[in-house]
TrEMBL record:
InterPro entries: cNMP-bd_dom, cNMP-bd_dom_sf, RmlC-like_jellyroll. It comes from the Bacteria. It holds the Pfam family cNMP_binding. Gene3D superfamilies: Jelly Rolls. This is Crp/Fnr family transcriptional regulator. It comes from Chryseobacterium tagetis. Residues 29-116 form the Cyclic nucleotide-binding domain.
């Protein structure tokens, strides 16, 4: 579980001496390609540390799916609004490849935070990361053309083109796959 230690120590700034208490609580969950980590209508009561695989978050409209986030190794996957409010989620998180996620329940996170205030750093990191990524995406949808949205996506998710199908990237950008092909040709 070195990857969790790396996330917690290097990225979040949690002391090594505190990390062991979390490692004793996480449970491993293996998800096959196309399987769901969580589905619309469920309540998200966990944060997941992605060890391997790629997942997407999406919502349904009346006629199609709309991707709104991706999760890669060494990131945290969660239906955050549901996690924070304990209400049912309106999103789905689905594996795009066989994936391994280590999950920490809301109850467990609350428990370790009550014992050691240093764990508030993790909660803040998760919220800040999601908030900043969502704000960047919202802003680019409001003011930028598809090419600029594509460039931002490449910044937010390095190597996405090697790991995620063009169809899913196009959905995330709010364009058709054919339009993405043209964008990529003009971007090179």
């Amino acid at each position: 579980m070195e990857f969790i230690k790396s996330i917690l120590a290097d990225t979040v700034g949690i002391k090594e001496s505190s990390i062991q208490s979390l490692l004793e609580l996480v449970t491993e969950r293996k998800i096959s390609k196309n399987e769901f980590l969580i589905q619309e209508g469920q309540t998200c009561n966990f944060v997941g540390f992605v060890k391997e695989g790629v997942l997407r978050s999406f919502v349904y409209s009346k006629v199609e799916e709309h991707n709104n986030d991706f999760y890669f190794p060494n990131t945290i996957a969660c239906a955050l609004t549901s996690f924070l409010t304990s209400e049912k989620t309106n999103c789905n998180i689905q594996a795009l490849s066989d994936s391994t996620i280590f999950c920490l329940s809301r109850q467990q996170l609350d428990s370790i935070m009550s014992q050691n205030m240093e764990w508030l750093k993790l909660s803040k990191y998760i919220s800040d990361t999601y908030f900043i990524r969502k704000c960047k995406r919202e802003t680019t949808f409001l003011k930028d053309q598809a090419l600029e949205r594509f460039k931002l996506t490449l910044e937010l998710f390095p190597n996405i083109e090697q790991l995620v199908s063009q169809y899913h990237i196009a959905s995330y950008l709010g364009i058709k796959p054919q339009s993405l092909s043209r964008l990529k040709s003009s971007h090179r």
